């Protein structure tokens, strides 16, 4: 066995079911392992490396900032923090931003804000948050509670209380929950990522908006995976034609460095006051400088290209032999295949293409700037593997 994998078994906590590759180097959409094999990576570190590996503009932003100032406490102002907040507000239509270090933390900040908003306006009994079945919101005790999947909860009870679960796309169930409980907010992914790359139905989203408006319930949009260009728009809510009250995001925002962001709209922008929330590393100057270099490039022309690549993938895969269904939005795509997902992943890997899974589907999250040539090469490989022709 590879000596590094042996050492990992000895010294590293066994939290991950890993793929047996030790990755050492990358450029663009391609990554190399320590045996010298090269792969087209359609996972981007789970939608993190928005511009692939070793992107020049990103590298310059990161190295310049690291040389200037790697960290200061949040008692002081720093320019990358402020510039990134400004850019995000301009591009999202939201009003204010809080920075943390991960998706789970961005959701924690959103949940705290929703509870405080409701307590201030409707009293402290109004603290419940509705989340959807099959959702994923993180691994902390509170974001696990928010995650609408029993299997994640077991063995970690008791979780944070106050979460109610609604079957995704069930309008009647949502109505009933909001009539029978004092609800502060509804937390949702517009496209359930870990749950299988499944978009919410537009009718359900419309009903959610109506119910929320009638009862002053906050719409909390978890864009940790869908955000920052991944959906073919800056944020996925733009595909659905509305603006949430709170948006959380992370993964692709800084193109490969840890960051979380919680964005507040008109209603929620002044919920937090000094001392109520914070994060030592949150808004780290290097992560923020990296994020500025990513977000600055997510303009209309670039997003149109993302949508074109998406259409290309759908057109190649939909109805193809060995493919049962293709779901998703932008460059976040789930493929249901005739062959078991493990076999497809391994088959692709053996032919130089790395893909992810979500539940029983193959999941693609390629770098947003992947070239059409690389995309074509990778899709050719996937099509060969899903038919079983390579076996
Ligand atoms: C990945 C993910 C999270 C958790 O993000 P971490 O950075 O791992 O904490 C939360 N919500 C969604 C929708 C995600 O895809």
Measured between the Cα atoms of the first and last residue, the distance is 24 Å
* Strands side by side in the biggest sheet: 4-12-11-10-7-5-6
The average pLDDT value, as a whole number, equals: 97
CATH T-level fold name of the largest domain = Aspartate Aminotransferase, domain 2
- Strand % is 15-25%
Principal-axes geometry comes out as globular
Structural class: alpha/beta
**How many β-strand runs?**
17
What's the level 1 CATH class of the largest domain?
Alpha Beta
Helicity level: 25-40%
Q: From the structure provided, what is the oligomeric state, counting identical versus distinct chains?
A: single chain
Quick rundown:
The protein is an alpha/beta fold.
Give an account of the 3D structure.
- It is a single chain.
- With 391 residues, the chain is α/β, with parallel strands linked by helices.
- The chain folds into two domains: 3-54 and 300-386, Alpha-Beta Complex (Aspartate Aminotransferase, domain 1); 69-295, Type I PLP-dependent aspartate aminotransferase-like (Major domain) (Aspartate Aminotransferase, domain 2), CATH 3.40.640.
- The protein has 14 helices and 17 strands.
- The strands form four sheets. A seven-stranded mixed β-sheet has the order 4-12-11-10-7-5-6, sandwiched between helices. It has a four-stranded mixed β-sheet with strand order 1-2-3-15. Strands 13-14-17-16 form a four-stranded antiparallel β-sheet, with helices on one face.
- Helix 3 runs antiparallel to helix 11, helix 4 (79-92) packs parallel to helix 11 and helix 12 runs parallel beside helix 14.
- It is globular and about 60 Å long.
- It starts with a helix and ends in a 5-residue tail after the last helix.
- The chain binds pyridoxal-5'-phosphate.
- Pyridoxal-5'-phosphate binds next to helix 5.
